[in-house]
Amino acid sequence: MTKPAYKGESIRQLLIYWLPELITLCVTVALPPLFDSYLIAGLKSTAAYGALGMATNFLHTLVKFSEAIPVAAIAVIGRHNGAKDHAGSAAHFINTLWTAILLGFTQLIVIWYTAPAIYEWLGVPTDMALLGAPFLRLRSVSVLFAFILLAILGFMRAIKNTRTPMLITLIGTGVYIVSSLLLVSGCYRIPACGMYGPALAALLEYTTMLCIALWCLRNTPAYKPYLLKLTNWSIDWRAIGSIIQFSIPVIIDKSALSFSYVWLSKMLATLGPDSIATFDIIKNLERSAIMPAAAFAQVVTFLVSNHLGAQQVTAARTTIIKILFLTSVLVSSTLIILSLWAPACIALFAPIPELITFATPLLRILSCLVVFDFVQLILAGALRGAGKVKTVMWIRFLSCLLFFLPISYILSLCSFSSTSLQFCLIYGAFYCNTALMGAAFLFQLKQKYWYEKTI
Q: Engineered SS bond to 111: which of 54, 87, 140, 237, CB 3.0-4.6 Å?
């Protein structure tokens, strides 16, 4: 790679790439849990608030798992599509769809019968478990639809149609927000469903999105060359096994951090109901604050990939540095605002004086550690762009398994005079874990031949 390179993308161009990604992530990732928290806060029940938060963490891991199958399938379907092999694309799509249906039904059956046991394993109080188990069962139905939907949207993306999945997602989010608003408190002769409102709203959301996706698949002319090639709709167990095996690295990568939140909630549950509710408040606020980094992580992946494909190593390196700078400015600004107005932000989602008093200093302290999280997000995205997908997977998996899980477990067993101190140390272990990952990613990027593809 000796070809001279320019100095990467301009700041203006980086922001142009970043803004649509930010809007999409804010609408689909950050907004729904914040909106749910705001609505459930109106019930003025710490048990309901905590039960919702614990279920959300667990369901987030399932959704990440559901994303892994289509993400892996996109590469295969895209390769068939690039070769104008419509029959191959269609056959792999059907096998992917069957895989998603079978895995979706599996999680539905497992969660339906084990929901109380899941809450018991998480260590929450009995009143939270009684509220949360039916909620988790209802949400598992919408997760089944999510498995099927994401397989269809993955097929659309693989044949270079990204606009339709985006529009379907935005419509679904709109349905979810309106439905939650109506179902939680009840109005227009709709009975109040309380904390079960978001679960029913999610069911309406994914049902609507799935119906629209199926309609588009059937009626869009661009998909007809693929559908006409479909001659066999039967289940190919060997193909399904191959798809699952091919998806394992993506599953591990996507699930490692999301499961860390589940584990973190379990460790903090030992500190009592207020700690459970505070964890959900801080997690949602800080996850929203880090959205600029999550958007830039997606941008840096495709930019680094394109630069290295054009043999522009210097441009790739410069782009990574520029994105790190922009991310630090944007996320730091958001966190400063969050810390300065911490009581008001917390009161918006949990108007309970005891929780505001308990959570405010914790939010301010833990916000200082978020820097480690956004750094690892950007560096992981850069490594993916360089083709080091398995490197990212193994670093995340081993860091969570060998550092975060044992350290947080030991801290949860220790006896502290202050609950706030123990909460801060356990939650802080999560960010120390992201710091460790970031250091490992940086070490990989500083190697002489970091840009050589190893997928």
A: 140
